[in-house]
Records
---
Amino acid sequence: MTLSTRRLSALAVALALPFAASAADYKVGPGSTLGFSGKFQGQQFDGSFGKFDAAISYDPANLATAKFDVSVDVATAKTGDGDRDKALPTADFFDASKFPKAHFVTTGFTKDAKGNVVANGTLTLHGVSKPVQLKVVFNPNAGGARLSVTGSLKRLDFGVGSGEYKDTGTIADDVLVNGSLNLLPN
Amino acid sequence: MPTRSEPTRWSTVAKTFHWLMALLILGNGAFALWMDGLKPSLNKINMFALHKSIGLTVLALFVLRLAWKMFDRRPPDEPAPRWQQFAAHLVHGCLYLLIVAIPLSGWAFNSAHGFPLQYFKQFNLPALVEKNEELSNTLGTVHVYLFWFLLLVLVAHIGGALKHHFIDRDDTLRRMLPFGRAKRNSPTSSGDTP
C-alpha cells in the first residue's frame, strides 16, 4: 500500500463516519407499490393500495438506527374485482370509515439465520395492533434506494373479515404483504 | 339387475345415469333460481360454488355416460310412426347437447366474470376464457336461456314418455323406471319377464 492510497482510505473512512453514525432518511418516490395477496376459493388474488406514505430511515451498516413508519389508506385497496373492491372497505372487512389507516412502525431490526434483514414491527390494522415481521431487501441506487419488503400475517388476527366472512374455507386466513418502495433522499 | 341393457329394459347403469342426472340437473336448476335471489353474502358465494360443483358433476357424469354408451347396447324403439321415432331421437339429441352446453356456458360465464372455480372446495379448475365483463354478461344470459330451453325440450321428452305409457300403453317408460321392466313378453327376452 502506498502512502497516497492509505491517505485516501483514511479520508474515505473519515467522510463515511458521520453517515454511518445515523441512518439516511428517505421518503417514498413515484414507482412505489404496496400490496397484498390473499386466497379466495382456492385461488390467489393480488391487491394493492393506491394511497400510502412512509418515512424510512435505513443504513445497512447500522441497523440499530433504522426505522420504518408506514401508513396506508385501507379504503384505496384494489384487487381487480369490482365486487371485492366494494366489499373490502365495508364493516365486513377493513371498516375503513372507522379505521381509515393501517399503520406499521418498526421496533427493531434483526438478521435471520440466512443473513436476511428482518424488520420487527407493530402493525395496527382495523384497530388491532399485533407484531408483524417483514423481510427487508435494500438496494442503494443512483437516486436513492429500492426497498423491498415481504411478510405474512393472518387476517383474522386483526379481525379483518367479520361474521360469516371469518370462514377460512372460502377466504384463507393467511395474507402475504409486499412492498417495493422507490426511496428518495429526504 | 342387468349391467347391460336388454331389449325389454335399460341396464342398471343406464337407468342410474338417466335418473341421477335428471335429479341433479333439475335440482341444480331449481337451486340456482333460489340462490339467485339471496342477498349478497358469503353464504350466497358458497351456494353459487355448490351450484357450480353440481354442474361440473353433471358434465363429468355425461362424459362417463357417453363412454358407457359405446359399450352398452340400447333397447330398440317401441313401434311408432317414423316421424315420432325421429322426433323422439331429435329431442334426445337436443337434451344431450344441452347437458353439455349448460355447464360449459356456466363455466365460461364464471371465467369471464373472473371468479375462481373450485370443485367442492377440493381443487381448482382453469378458466375457459379471459376475464371480460361484456362477455360475462352475455354468457350469463346464455346460461339461463339454455336452461329455459332445456325445460321446453323436457316437456317434449317427458310428454312423449307419458304418451307412450298412458295412450300407447307400451313399455317405453316402464323399461326406464328404476325397478320397472317390460310387461309384455318380448321374443328376445331371456324369459324372466312375468
---
Amino acid sequence: MSRVFITGLGFITSIGNDSAQVEDSLRHLKHGFELYPPFQTPDTPCKVAGTIKGFFTDSGDQEDWTYPERYKFKRELMRTMAPNGLFAHCALLQAIEDAKLSDEDISNPDTGLNAASGGSPFLTHYNHERLQKLGVMRCSPFGIVSSIVGTLNFNLVAAFKIQGSSCGFSSACASSAHALGFAYDDIKLGRQKRMFVVGAEDGNKDAILPFAGMRTLSLQTDPAIASRPFDAARDGFVGTGGSCVLVLESEEEVLRRGVTPYAEVIGWGQASDGYNVAISHPEGNGLQLAMKRALASASLAPENVDYVNAHATSTLIGDISEVKALKAVFPQASTKPYVSSTKALTGHGLSLAGAMESAFSVLAMKRGFIPGSAHISKIDPACEGIAILKETLNEAPSVVMKNASGFGGANVSVLFKKV
Amino acid sequence: MPEAASSHTGTKAPFIALAKPFTPEDEVALREALKRCSPSTFESAVQFRKTGNPEHLPAVVIGVIERYVEPELRVKLKDAADDLRMIEDLGIDSLTMMEIVILVEDVLQMTINNEELRNLRTVGDVKAFIDCKVRGLPLPKPTKFLPIEHIASVMPIQPPFLFINEASVSSLGANGKYKISGQEFFLQGHFKDNPVMPASIMLEALGQLAVLYLLEGLVPEAGKAVAPNLIYFTGCEGVRAHRICKPGDILSLAIKPKRMKMPLATFEGSIRVGQEKAVIAEEFTLTFGFVDVPVAPPATEVQGAPASQPAPSAS
C-alpha cells in the first residue's frame, strides 16, 4: 500500500488568492468578510458574505466576467464554466505550479481528479429563465454543463486533459472532504499515482441565500463579528465561495520527482448520523464514529492528534454537536487537541469547506503554526471543555485532524501528518 | 465579397413578408443580442428586420460568425471565399455552431432545425441556407467535398491535363484547388528557364471545374443525366490575368453558374492565390447535353430503420 502525500496547493478564497496571502490571513486572523453588495437590499436580511476579491462573476454571460491579470481565459473555455469553475481553474493552475508538475504529469492514465461543488444555482436560474423567455431551442447549449452539479469535473477534466479517474462528489458540506478521502484511497490502493482534489462554490446570492429559509445564516451586519464559531452570541454561518485544490501523490511519484511535500495524508473515516435530513445529531454520533475510524485507519491513538480544524460553522446546533463529539473521542479534550474553526475568517464554503480547510491545515502545518479560532469574545458554555485556541499558536502540529459534516448527517474526518 | 444572396437565382424572389413591425423594444433586444458583434452587423440586422430585404443577410451572418471565431482567425473572414470551412478553417466546433445558430435565429427571427444544421459546412453554405430560408426557397443541396480519386473517376478530362486536386460542389457553384507542382510538362517550355503557369491553362482549370459542376452539382430533371462526353468549351468574355503564378502556388478556383439554358451553361469564375487575385473570367460558356438514365424506384423505408440520423449525443 502506497503512502500518500500532499505536494501542491491552490487557493482562491475570501482570505486570499494565493498561498502567501492565505498564510498571512490565517496567521494574523484576518477575515475575508464584506457587506456583499447584492445582499444590500431591504428584503435581504442577510448582509455579510466572504467575498472573492479580484473577480467579477455576477453575470450570466461569461464574457462579462473579470479576473486577475495573471490568468488568461479564451471565450471557448469560459463559456462552459460556472463561477466556481473559474475559481477552480485558477486554483488548479496554482496547485500545478506549486507542485511543479509538467504537462505529462497532469495528462496521463495515472492522474485523476475528484471534484466537489454544489453546481451553480445562479446559472441554472439564469438559463431556465432564458429557456422560458426565449424558447426551448434558444437556451444556451452550455446551460447544462455550466450549471449542474458536476460542472466542476466536466470542465476541469476537459480543460486539463485528465485521463485517469474522475468523479464528482455530492454530500453537501462534506463533499470535498469525501473527494479527498476517496482520492487518498485511489492512490493508496495503487489505482492512481496522483489525484487533484478540488472544492469550489460560486458563493454568490443564489448559492447562499437559499439557506436563509432554514434560519442558518447569520443576520449580523458587522463583518468583523458575523462568523464566530463557538461564541455564545453566534447566530448562524456566513456564506462564501472560491476554490481550493490539493495535489495528492504516491510516495513513488514524490521520490521520482524529488519534491518536498506539505504533509502526508495518513487516514480518513466517514460515518452517517442516520438522524435528520438537515440537523446534525445532538451528540455528534456520526462525527464521533468518523473520527474514530480515521484514527483507526491511521493506527493512531487520540492522544497523538495535536490540532483539530473543526467543521464548526457558527450555527447554534452544529457547533455544539461537534464539541460533544470531540469530547467523546478525545479523553483529554480539555487540554488536547487544540481546536479552532477557520470558518471564523473565511465563512462557510459549503462543498468547498473540506478541501479548503484541509489545505489551510497542511499549509499551517508546513509553515509552523496553528491558526486561532477568531472572533470569540465569550465562549458558549455549551462549547466549554475542549481546548479552543483563540489566538494563533506559533508551533507546528505533528498530526492534524480535519472534520467536515454535511446534510443528511454525512461526516468525514481526515488525518494529516507533518513530514 | 461574392454576393450569394443575389447571384444564384435568375429572378430575385420577393422580400419575405415581415411577421410583425420592428418596434423600439425589438431594437433594444437586438442591440443587446448583438452587443459583441461589429456595429455594422447590428446596422445590417436592423435594416433586415425593418425592410425584410435579404441583401442585408450576408453582413449579418458573417458578423455573427465573426463574433464566435477566435480573434486571431477573424482575418480569414475578411473577404472570405464561400468555401471557407467552418470547422477546419475557422476552428468552429459543433457547440459553437449551436451558438451561432441560436444567435442567428434570435436576430433574424427564424427557426433552424437539427437536420438543416448538419449540412452547413462552409461559410457559403450558411449564407446560402439562410438566404433560401428567408426567401422561402427550397434549400440548396449541401456542399459535397470531392477528393482527387472521385474527380478523376467522373471527369472526361484526365491527367496529365487535369488541373483540379480537390473540389467542393454544391448546387450554387463549385470551388477547387490546384497546386502547381512544377512537374507539369508544359512548364519546360513556358517559359525558357522561367516556369510560369499559362493563363490559357488557368482558364482551362476554371472550365474543368465548371465541367465538374455540371456532372456533380446540377440537378437535372428525373430520368436525365449530364453526359460527360457532350461537354465542350464555346467561348469566354472578360478574362484578365492579374498575377504571375509559379510552381508552389496553390490556385483557389471558384465558379458559379450565371445562366443555364440547354445546351449552353454560362459561368463566372475566379482564381486566387491566398488572398491575391490571379485570374478573373467574367463569363465563359460550355455546351452540354443529357442522356437518359433509368429512374430509380423510390426507396422503400426499411422497417425499424430510423427516419433520420439521431442527433449527436453529448453523453
